[in-house]
Amino acid sequence: MLNSCILDIGVNQGDFIFPLAARLPSMPLFGVEPIPELFDLLETKRAELDLSHVRFRRVAIDEAPRRARFNVARHADLGVSSLLDFDTATLQKNEYWQGRSDLYFDEEIDVDVVRLDTLIEAEGFDHISFIKIDAQGVDLRVLASLGKYLDVLDAGMLEVSTTRNSVLYHDEPLLRDVLEFLDQHGFEPYAIKSNDPACAEVNVYFNRKGIDWQALEQRLQLRGIALYDGRHYWHVPSATPQLPPEALGAVAHNEVARARHFNAENAATWARVVHWKSEVGRLAREKQALSVQLAEQRSALHARRFIPAAPAPVPAPRCDHAAFDAEIARLQQVEAALRHESGTLRSEIKALRNSTSWRVTLPLRALKSLLTGHA
After folding, report:
1. Distance (Å, rounded) from C-alpha 71 to C-alpha 59?
2. Between 20 and 30 A from 353 (CA), which of 118, 182, 305, 337?
3. Local structure of 23: helix, strand or coil
């Protein structure tokens, strides 16, 4: 069974791939967008819509892989950003482009440029049901970079300038170059729709020869998606190729209303992106503060491990005061008795000394022994 997919090269803000993904929940869709902020916006929206069958890569596509300078126009919808430079000489001469105020670049960034066949092989696809290309001047080179995978492509659409006098960029191919390439590789156009009132650029819709493009269009549910349906402009003779208000009528009103709706939706989405980036920054700062607190607590605990604990106080011996007092009283009584006995003996000795009938003949040593209680 074929591992088929739909490709969107130059996704911008996803006006083609997201509506299609909602209609085809089982079909893998693969998008390429080189501008960082657009890529981040796409990833955020993909996550919000929970589209697991949609994948994006932040690269530019061309026939020669390289690291290259990419011109970014940060105004409007960033839609004129390109690998190529503007052809200023043509822009100054062309009546339609002279009336456009968005044809300038704000900045240059470096991007990785890869071939489309390299991406397809890495993703593991072996069949391409449809490819939408809007790569601002290099659409045909993107298609050519499919290489061998051109043989497994059913249909697609791309944007191209009609004549040398209407090109936007240096070295971009023309409508005749696209038609020749398609014919040489087994494709044919089934529609060519003008991309502006002056027909300076057109969208070429093509299918592999022999494939029923209407059946394919119905199977992939492409109709009703604005970027696929495109526009059919009536030719209005004029000195400058701009449609007068009366020719636009309700079409002009609807286009303006739709543009305002998309601009408001994009602004709201971008505001959400800015909000969540701010939240991420706040959480990062909180994480840093908690990390500092944790480090301080660990240092304090580490220091406490190496400070010897104070020795526990030796409890004072317990004293039985009643027994102690009784013992003192007993000793005092013994002492009093001994004093009394000593006084009695001293009195007797004195009486003996004074007696005329008896004279003490005991030697002094014997008397001392008698007084101390020793024989």
Report:
1. 13
2. 337
3. helix
Rounded CA separation 82/67 (Å): 14
* CATH class of the domain comprising 4-238: alpha beta
pLDDT digit string, tens, across residues 186-218: 999 999 999 888 899 999 999 999 999 999 999
Q: Where are the domains of the chain?
A: 4-238, 244-283, 325-372
Q: What is the DSSP letter of 148?
A: G
Span 87-111, average pLDDT: 92
CB burial readout 211-243, b (16+ within 10 A) else e: eebeebbeebebeebebbebeebeeeeeeebbb
pLDDT tens per residue, range 8-64 = 999 999 999 999 999 999 999 999 999 999 999 999 999 999 999 999 999 999 999
CA distances from 20 to 95, 228, 325, 331 (A): 36, 10, 106, 115
pLDDT tens digits, 262-298: 667 777 777 787 788 778 888 888 888 888 888 888 8
Question: Hey, CA dihedral for 214, 218, 219, 224, is it positive or negative?
Answer: positive
The Cα–Cα gap between 15 and 5 comes to 18
Supply the DSSP symbol for 269.
Answer: H
Question: What is the distance of C-alpha 366 from the center of its chain?
Answer: 116
Distance CA 315, CA 189 (A): 105
Closest-CA residue to 114 (of 81, 74, 150, 65): 65
Per-residue pLDDT tens over the stretch 108-140 = 999 999 999 999 999 999 999 999 999 999 999
- DSSP codes of every residue in 288-342: HHHHHHHHHHHHHHHHHHTSPPPPPPPPPPP--HHHHHHHHHHHHHHHHHHHHHH
Listing DSSP states for 220-264 in one string gives: TT-TT-HHHH---PPP---SS----HHHHHHHHHHHHHHHHHHHH
Q: Distances in Å between the alpha carbon of 255 and those of 102, 199, 226, 229? A: 18, 17, 11, 13
**Number of alpha helices (DSSP H) and beta strands (DSSP E) in the chain:** 12, 10
In the chain, the amino acid numbered 37 is E
The count of other CB atoms within 10 Å of the CB of residue 33 is: 26
**DSSP of 81-130:** -BSSPB-HHHHHH-HHHHT-S-----EEEEEEEE-HHHHHHHHT--EEEE
